[in-house]
Structures are given as C-alpha cells and as structure tokens.
Amino acid sequence: MTTLFLVRHGRTGWNKEQIFRGTKDVPLDEVGKEEALLVGERLKGEGITAVFSSPLSRAKETAEAIARFHNVKVQVLAGLNDLNFGEWEGLSIEEVKKRYLDLYQQWQQEPHRVIFPGGEGLDAVRSRVIEAVGDVVARHAQEVVVLVSHRVVLKVLICALLGLANSHFWHIGQDTAAINCFRYQDGKWIVMLLNDTCHLQKVGVERGKVDF
C-alpha cells in the first residue's frame, strides 16, 4: 500500500492580498512559515521516506519543514510547479476583473475551458502532475511519500485521483498548509484526508472562506 500526503504550501503575502501567484517565486510570509512548521509537526510520526516539492520557494520551504523530521532531502519535481497564469501573474483579483472580465467569469464558471493568455490551462497541469505522480509511485511503491505543491495543482490532482473531470475544480477546497492523504490499494486511490487544517488551529487564520 502506497501512501501519498499531498500538502499545499504555507501562506505568502500574495495569498493574503489575493494576488495571482502562478510561476512567480513568492516566499512564505511569517504566518506561512509558522504554518509550515505545524505541518512538519503534524507529519513527523508518519514514517515518511521521501519528500518532493514544486521548484518554487514557497513550496520548498514548506517541504523542508516536513523533511527535517525524517532525515530525507527535499527532491524538486517540475511537474508539481504551479499553474502558469500568464498575464494574470502579479495582478490582484480586482485588476484581473478590470482587464479580463469575460475570461475571469469563465474561470469561475468553466475553469476546465480556460487557457490563460501567455500561460496554460488545467488540462496541461493535469497531464504533467499525473506523469510526475506516476513516476513517484513507481519509484516509491509501498512507501509513505509527501508531495508539496500549490492550490490549482492539488485540486486538479485530487480530481484525477478521484476520477473526476477538471470541471469539478471548484468543488474541492485547498487552504494554505492543508494536508490531503490518499492510499493506493487494490488498484485504486482511496481518499483518507481532504483539506485537513486541524493542525493549524493555533495560527488563528480563518479557513475555508476564500478559495485563493
């Protein structure tokens, strides 16, 4: 039985300000650093044998907070990189609404049909993250592995593991520093945890209200 812990990185200043991040390398803020430490504490007894991360520093910082308890090095996996939002990166939600209102509305209603100008769409994300996870599982069968990535990537990956189309993107929540857990058993993925944030109670940040 292979166990995958899927972890979203801790908070950044752009999460707080609701600015589209994508491939921009935005580091954790002070709250995010505390969240990362709490994720590490939560997972320290799980017998983790490998930790993989997106190339971006917000994910790597979170991954390192987990890996330090297990005497393993963080391995960077390009397939875990965030969605490329193209021209939206660095813009706030309000700025995007002013410049790209029609596309923003489509993103809210039909996310699976959107390809961002100068960026990519959910299908491209799904292809690369499924390939990355397949490689990890092949190399670490019957082990406990952590993948640290981003909101969009994890939502798409969770859809894939549950056999759902990308049109279900908005049906899945992913708070900062949330933990998800899947086990591969009898030829199928079984969800054990989804968007778990119980370990973050002491941070005092309200969860689940804003999907960003």
Looking at this protein, list some descriptive labels.
single chain, 212 residues, Rossmann fold, six-stranded mixed β-sheet, 6 strands
Task: Just give the CATH class.
Answer: Alpha Beta
- CATH structural architecture: 3-Layer(aba) Sandwich
Tell me the β content: 15-25%
The helix-and-strand class reads alpha/beta
The CATH fourth-level homologous superfamily: Phosphoglycerate mutase-like
Helix content: 25-40%
Low-confidence stretches: none
Number of strands: 6
Could you characterize what this model shows?
The chain is α/β, with parallel strands linked by helices and 212 residues long. The protein has a single domain, classed as 3-Layer(aba) Sandwich (Rossmann fold). It contains seven helices and six strands. Helix 4 (93-99) packs across helix 5 (101-109) and helix 6 (122-139) packs across helix 7 (151-161). The termini are far apart. The model has no long low-confidence stretch (mean pLDDT 97).
